[in-house]
Amino acid sequence: MILTEDQLQALLDTTMERIDAGPEYAVVLEGSIAEGFGNSSSDIDFLLIADSDADLPTMPSVLFVDGRRVEVRTRSVRQLTQQFDRVIAAGNRVSTLDEDLLNRCQRMLRSFPLRRKDLVGKIKDQLPFESFCAVMHKWWAHRARHCLRHASALTVLGQHEEALSWGRAGLTQSMKSWAAGKGETYLEPKWLSLQLDRAGEVSVRDRYFELISSADVGASDCVEFAARVGITGCTYEPERLTVERAPGVTTWRTGARTHVVRGKQDVFALGANTAKVWGSVVFGRPLAAPTPEAGAIIARFLRLGLIRLSWRGAGTLVPALPLAAPAGPLSPPPSAAAPVLTVGGAPVTGVDAIDLLPLPAKRFGASAMTLVWSNVLIENAKEDLTGALDRQQWRVAELVTRRMVQVSLRSLLSAYGVNPLPPDDDLVRRLDLLPDTGLAAPARELESVRVSTPEEGRSALKRLEEFVAAVRAITGAGLFPSSFDSADTWRSTLDIGYDWLRLGAYLDADLPLTEAQDLLSSGGAQPHLTGGKT
């Protein structure tokens, strides 16, 4: 150690004067200095052990004693015993053990006793160090395999730089496994060089650092050397890598747009190229990349958690960096495409896009259903307005004009993801939520239009048609069918609505009207017709 026992005892005496702990506590030094590592900047880690069943806090107290940072933690005998028992109970399922538990056990087992050495010895005897070395050997090996197999997958996909990064991560964990087999169990990778020095095999140490630092290596070199230090089952065998469905990931196509929903929370809109590659992925088949471009796209699907990979006979790959947060699904910055959605699906930023939409999936589904239904109401209002003008029902025409403006604004706000919507009478004022569309002024004018002659009626109808066309140009509804003109146009309307209703129902979004549930229940058909008649 870099400090003598007398120095440590002096630091402990000063520390104990400044904390609320009596002489009955056992005390050990743990951490890097106890391991024989450390330097002049290393903190002093004292663990105080209460001979009791108490639940003592995990958070350390930090003091500064004689120019050194001192961390004081507490544990009861029961807490330490439970930690060891969890490791013992795992048996051969060491991969289920979390690194925090293992770190606490390791620090205790390798600690240097300063007070009540008899009690410290009894605690350590509950988990023999040789048994703990075997656990750490297997635990690091398990993690190394996942990283090295993941590196092989990235090699298949042509992502060689990323494959090397994961190969090196796997190799570091392979060396930690190898070192644990030689009694070096300290978890923190930063001291690996000193662990390898103490392990004593210079050729192994030197080859590891060459692979970690040299520019002239690849992922396959890491895999090969890992096998040399005992990590089996990681040879480059692409045929063993298969594509799996990721839990909670579903595909929804509306119009020409493919959407992928992740965990009922996130919606990704795919560009034309990415949608084509997505459609070519066959679950349960070996991983393959027909072209470098397709390989890069599949790798993006993998990073986003839209697919998973499995190693045949060994289950799903779950790679993780050494003592770092698990590599969970990536969430990129939200797409800047506006509006957020159209009748035909979410806009994308390009043919290679996998755009994360900037609103929760449930709100996306609700907004989309409202957008479509608002367009149906536009058609219904148009039919009512035409009839009122034909019969010279001027007050009816004024009310229907106002209604047509409001349902158009419903569709516009929905296209930008506004949901729930403001009250109808407040819609025109809430256009300030959106980028300037140039539609606020005409909307206000049309809401207050007066019709008392056929000429005024024709003028109002023309202005309304121009207004609706402008809204539909923004919301991608320019080709929305004239729903009530014929059986065919109504059928087309139902088909559009059914696509979005299915997605909305899957996301548990509120349906825009009660009758929508009947359309879902009937599989998109009208409920009362027989013989396929429309």
UniProtKB/TrEMBL annotation:
InterPro entries: NT_sf (IPR043519). It comes from the Bacteria. This is Polymerase nucleotidyl transferase domain-containing protein.
